[in-house]
Amino acid sequence: MKHTLLLATITTVIGSAQAATLNVYNWSDYIAEDTLEKFTAATGIEVNYDVYDSNEVLEAKVLAGNSGYDIVVPTSDFLRRQIGAGAYQKLDKSKLPNLKNMDEALMAQAERYDENNDHSVIYLWGTTGIGYNVNMVQERLGDNAPTDSWALIFDPANAAKLADCGISVLDAPTEIIPAAMKYLGLDPNSTDSDDFAKAEALLTTIQPHIRYFHSSQYINDLANGDVCVSVGWSGDIYIARDRAAEAENGVEISYTIPKEGTLQWFDMLAIPVDAPNPDLAHQFIDFIMDAQVTADITNYVWYANANAASMPLVDEEITSDPTIFPTAEVRDNLYAATVYNSRQDRVITRTWTKIKTGQ
Ligand code: N2P
Question: 0.85 cut: is pTM over it?
Answer without folding.
Answer: yes
